[in-house]
Predict the 3D structure of the following.
Amino acid sequence: MYPNWEHWRDLKGTCPVCGKPSHVGASMRTGRYYWLHDDYDIREYYREHGKHSSLAEISFDVFQEMIRCAREHGIEPMATIGGAEAVSKRVRCIETGKEYRSIQDAADDVQRSRASLSSAIKRSGTCAGCHWALV
């Protein structure tokens, strides 16, 4: 819908301007991070907040801290472009119970290829010494 924005819907908070439930968004044009309403509509957002200069901006350091905290709570934040959900398969490590947003994220975490992890899932085998399942 709005392809020039990345949405980090797992990074939740409250808009400091109006108090509405919000998530982190990144302008792909400027590379800056902002609080965006969960019921995001850019036209409504501009009416309430004005243009980009008055949006509630988040510093990169705060964004990185939010990512770190989410990961500590077992959430692997993943951006979607323009509000469209990414087409990916969630996966869980049977031994640890840790869930990942995609096979690629899990493969990266255990330092294996996506193909080897996907193969382990299909044959009910192991990859990196662990069993894996689609969620």
